[in-house]
Design goal:
The chain is mostly beta strands. Helices cover 10% and strands 33% of the residues. It has 7 helices and 21 strands. The strands form 3 sheets. Strands 1, 2, 3, 4, 5, 6 and 7 form a 7-stranded antiparallel β-sheet that branches. Strands 8, 9, 10, 11, 12, 13 and 14 form a 7-stranded antiparallel β-sheet that branches. Strands 15, 16, 17, 18, 19, 20 and 21 form a 7-stranded antiparallel β-sheet that branches.
Length: 393
C-alpha cells in the first residue's frame, strides 16, 4: 500500500489518495489549516465523536492520495475496503503515524505531509522523490489495544520445574488438554518488563489452531497450554529460555521474558494418521536421489510449473514418529509448483503426481532441510512423506 514503508509487514501497494468534492486549489487557499509541531498541516472537514487512537490500537482508514500537481495516486474507496494498521508498529510512513494520531474516530480530514515524513528522496511507484503528499482521510474505526486479564491478588500461581509460571484466571468446564489434541487458542502477548502488547489473536479476530505435542509452538506454550482445559482463561509467564531464547524473533528482542493471556476456545482429539500400505510396492528413484513409492496412480494431467497444488500429507522421521500432518489439522496444504515455497524434494516429487495420486516420498537431507534442524526435525534428517494430491488449480 502506498503510504506504507517499503519493507512493511503489511502490503506495500496501496495506501492512500484524495478529495472528491472540492478541488485542491479551493481547499488549500482556505486559511483553516493547522500546522503540527512535526510539520504536518491538517484540517478537519467532518467531526467524529470517537476517541483518538493510542499506541497498539488497530485503526481502519479510508483515503484518497494526491500529489501537489493534483495527480490522483490512490483511492481506497474504489477498492471498497479501508486500510488497517497498528499504531506505533512502524507499518506506515511517519506522516501517517503522526497525522492519524491527531484525529478522532469518525473524523474526516485533509493531511498535507512533507517529504521528510513521507518517502523523502526515494521514489515509490507513482510518487516521485521529494514529494509532498496530500491525503483526504476518514478514520472509519478504531479497535482499542487489548487489555491484560485482571489477575487478582491471592490468585494461585504455579511454577513448574522448567521455570514456567501459570495461573488460571477463569475456570472453564471442558475437557483437559493432552498431547495430540488439536486446540484453538485466543491470546494476547505482552513483554513482561512493561506489559507492552506485541501480538494478539483477539485483535486479528482469529484464534490460532495447532496440535499439542508437535513442536508447533514455543516450549512455554506447549507446557502451559497442556495444564489447561477447554474454557479456561489463564496467564502464562514464560522465561525467554522457553520462548525465543537469546536470538529473539520479529518484534521480540533477544532474551526477552514474555507474558501470554490465553483462552482455550475448544479442542478435539485427533486420530493418528495411518501410514500408507507399502506392501508389494516398488521403490523408484530419480537422478537427484529422491525415492518414491506409488500407492495410487491418480488420473489426469501432471501439474506444471506455476500451478497451485492442494495436498494432504503426513511427515515421518525414519524412526516412524510423525512430525507434521495436514491430516491431523484437518486442513489441506497449498503451494505453487517450482516456486521454492517447499523443500526441493516436494517440488520434484509432487510434480510427478496426477490428481488423486497417493505417493510415499523418501527425501534425503540435501533435498530436505540439510544440516538445519527445524523444530522436531533434527539436522541431516532423511524424511518420509505420505502425500495425496487432492487437486491442481
Amino acid at each position: 500500500m502506498k503510504g506504507m514503508k517499503p519493507n512493511s509487514v503489511i502490503l506495500v501497494v496501496a495506501l492512500l489518495g484524495l478529495l472528491a468534492a472540492c478541488s485542491l486549489p479551493q481547499r488549500l487557499t482556505q486559511p483553516v489549516y493547522t500546522t503540527d509541531s512535526s510539520g504536518i498541516q491538517y484540517r478537519i472537514i467532518q467531526q467524529g465523536s470517537g476517541n483518538k487512537p493510542m499506541i497498539n490500537d488497530m485503526v481502519y482508514v479510508h483515503y484518497r492520495l494526491m500529489l501537489e500537481d493534483s495527480t490522483l495516486v490512490d483511492n481506497s474507496y474504489e477498492r471498497g475496503e479501508p486500510v488497517s494498521f497498528k499504531m506505533g508498529a512502524g507499518q506506515v510512513i511517519d506522516g501517517w503515524e503522526k497525522g492519524i494520531r491527531l484525529l478522532n474516530e469518525g473524523d474526516r480530514a485533509i493531511l498535507i505531509i512533507p517529504p521528510d515524513l513521507a518517502y523523502g528522496e526515494s521514489a515509490v511507484g507513482d510518487i516521485p522523490a521529494n514529494s509532498k503528499l496530500i491525503f483526504d482521510v476518514e478514520v472509519v474505526k478504531i479497535d482499542p489495544s487489548p487489555k491484560p486479564f485482571d489477575v487478582l491478588d491471592g490468585i494461585e500461581i504455579t511454577t513448574t520445574t522448567s521455570g514456567l509460571r501459570y495461573a488460571v484466571i477463569e475456570e472453564g468446564d471442558g475437557m483437559m488438554l493432552i498431547s495430540g489434541m488439536r486446540v484453538r487458542i485466543h491470546y494476547n502477548g505482552f513483554f513482561e518488563e512493561d506489559m507492552t502488547i506485541f501480538d494478539s489473536s483477539y485483535q486479528r479476530g482469529e484464534p490460532i489452531d495447532f496440535t499439542l505435542g508437535k513442536g508447533m509452538v514455543i516450549r512455554g506454550w506447549e507446557e502451559g497450554i497442556s495444564k489447561l482445559r477447554v474454557g479456561d482463561k489463564a496467564r502464562l509467564w514464560i522465561p525467554y529460555e522457553l520462548a525465543y531464547g537469546e536470538q529473539g524473533r520479529g518484534p521480540i528482542p533477544p532474551a526477552t521474558n514474555l507474558i501470554f493471556d490465553v483462552e482455550v476456545i475448544d479442542a478435539e482429539e485427533v486420530k493418528r494418521p495411518e501410514p500408507f500400505n507399502m506392501a508389494g510396492k516398488d521403490t523408484l528413484e530419480t537422478e537427484t536421489g529422491l525415492r518414491y513409492i506409488i500407492v495410487n496412480e491418480g488420473t489426469g494431467e501432471l501439474p506444471e510449473e506455476g500451478q497451485v497444488v492442494i495436498v494432504h500429507y503426513t511427515g515421518f522421521l525414519m524412526n516412524g514418529n510423525i512430525f507434521d500432518s495436514s491430516v491431523e489439522r484437518g486442513q489441506p496444504f497449498r503451494f505453487i509448483i517450482d516456486r521454492r515455497q517447499v523443500i526441493a524434494g516436494w517440488d520434484e516429487g509432487v510434480a510427478l503426481m496426477k490428481p488423486g495420486a497417493r505417493y510415499r516420498f523418501i527425501i534425503p537431507p540435501d533435498l530436505a532441510y540439510g544440516e538445519r534442524a527445524m523444530g522436531p526435525i533434527p539436522s541431516n534428517a532423511t524424511l518420509i512423506f505420505d502425500v495425496e494430491l487432492l487437486s491442481v488449480e
